[in-house]
Amino acid sequence: MLSTALYHYPIIRYLVNEVELWNPIHKQWFKNRPEERVRLRIIEYFLQECQISPNRIGPEFQVDLANQTKGRIDLVCFDANYQAHCLVECKQVYVPLNEQVAQQIAKYHLSLPSPYLLITNGRVDAWFQRTSRGIEYLESLPDEYKSTREADRDLPYWVDRGFVYPYIPDSLHELVCNICSRLYVDLQSPPTYLDFEDIPTEFMLENYYLITSFGENETHTQIAFAMNGKRNTQSLDVILSENGVSTKLLKIDMLALSNHESAHAALYTEMGQKQVDVSSMSPLNNEEWMGKLSAFLAKA
Fold first, then answer.
1. Which residues, other chains included, contact 262 with Cβ-Cβ below 8 Å and sequence gap of 6+?
2. Where are the domains of the chain?
3. Which has the higher per-residue pLDDT, 110 or 197?
4. What value does the mean pLDDT of the chain take?
5. In this structure, which topology does domain 11-145 adopt according to CATH?
6. Is 39 exposed, middle or buried (0-12, 13-18, 19+ CB in 10 A)?
7. Cα angle vertex 77, ends 153, 54, to 5°?
8. Residue 53 — very low, low, confident or very high, per pLDDT cuts 50/70/90?
9. Is the confidence at residue 60, as pLDDT, over 60?
10. 3 state DSSP class of 61
């Protein structure tokens, strides 16, 4: 089934060309690693939608295995009596949830029995339940882990997760919240985390992107959108990918755009960088901004 973590994002902070992730259970900053992002997204779901107390969530829980070695379970949820209730194994987003992953969490379950087991890569979840017949796959969420309330995605929520500049002007509060909701709570197209290893680190483009197909050959041309509130800027980043390779980047400075400055957007291609005017197709005054920016970037 689709993961409950699809529309949850870790709290982050920006250092010099580096991102760190906040673990609300350990109350510490951790390095930005793929599996850590998945674990924190699951934690976000448990805390915000299931309303599980942070005192009942144990990340990287150590257990003694049968072969006299130590093991670490990515996440353990405890019941009201602090007995293990759910074991969670987190994998990177592109790791398939196959039998090998299931065997790994089953090994942990031998040392720390629990009613439920979950394996996840942040896009797909596989839930299991311990029964009198053994461990059985579940077709739906256990009642104890179903959402009991919606997450409160207000301005501080988007700021904490690095999508919005902390000191964004009051006049843009509603706009940036609406853009973030459009990009990051889209039930038709869950956002994907992109690393962009081939792009200079000073761009700091690593982020969650809403990816859409474009043009007649939709399997080969895609447009990715992200909001970035890094350092003292607020940018809307739009990236064109052709045959899996990023070929164009459009960085829109939302602060400059709202101030009607001429230098409000830069287009980067293999030919270099140039300033462009996107005022007529910006989210400030155009409901069809995603389609218009996609068409602009494809033709630029």
1. 275, 277
2. 11-145, 163-299
3. 110
4. 90
5. tt1808, chain A (3.90.1570)
6. buried
7. 50
8. very high
9. yes
10. strand
